[in-house]
Automatic annotation (TrEMBL):
This is Type I restriction modification DNA specificity domain-containing protein. GO terms for molecular function: DNA binding. GO terms for biological process: DNA restriction-modification system. Belongs to the type-I restriction system S methylase family. Residues 6-179 form the Type I restriction modification DNA specificity domain.
Length: 179
């Protein structure tokens, strides 16, 4: 349901994006070189660090195309300790950098991609790093203090402000200058 906030629309994420869960692979499938696999442990400070990543064989790519991530995608971790705990990874977000373009996304994370022409992917990515987003995760994560999960069905209910495209671009430009 899209509604308006002043002159900005507000909509649920499910109306604007596509969610793709990361894949699950057996330890025996990993190899020393090949396609990088981005795990929750590779997400730090809003980006992806591939220094300690695992790899799948190149021939796996066709089989796992839905798990491929692209530069600019928003990645959200979906499992971790409760968001109020220090060091919790649930709800941690990253904007896929050029260095991780074409990598595969592992389980316990979701790729969020804009499918609406009125929503800039870069603006969406910065929303994923916002306090608004962190507060939403804190209120919707379910489980025990040791391990919680944020379900895609919950993420999809998040309402986000959608300013006009030119304002989305300005916001993204300003924030990218600080990255």
């Amino acid at each position: 349901m899209i509604r308006f906030m002043n002159n900005w629309k507000v909509a649920h994420l499910e109306e604007l994006v596509e969610f793709t869960n990361g894949g699950a692979w057996k330890a025996s499938e990993y190899v020393d070189e090949g396609i990088p696999v981005v795990r929750v442990s590779d997400i730090h400070n809003g980006t992806i660090i591939l220094d300690k990543c695992k790899y799948l064989p190149q021939e796996s790519l066709k089989k796992y195309m839905k798990n491929v991530i692209s530069q600019g995608d928003l990645i959200i971790t979906t499992v971790g300790s409760h968001p109020t705990q220090p060091g919790s990874v649930v709800g941690r977000s990253a904007i896929v950098p050029k260095s991780a373009h074409g990598a595969l996304l592992n389980q316990n994370a979701v790729k969020i991609t804009s499918v609406n022409l009125g929503l800039e992917q870069e603006y969406l990515a910065y929303l994923g790093k916002s306090q608004l987003f962190r507060n939403f995760i804190k209120s919707r994560a379910r489980g025990s203090a040791n391990q919680v999960r944020i379900a895609i069905s919950e993420l999809s209910k998040m309402e986000i402000p959608i300013p006009p495209l030119y304002i989305q671009r300005k916001i993204a430009d300003i924030l990218s200058a600080y990255d």
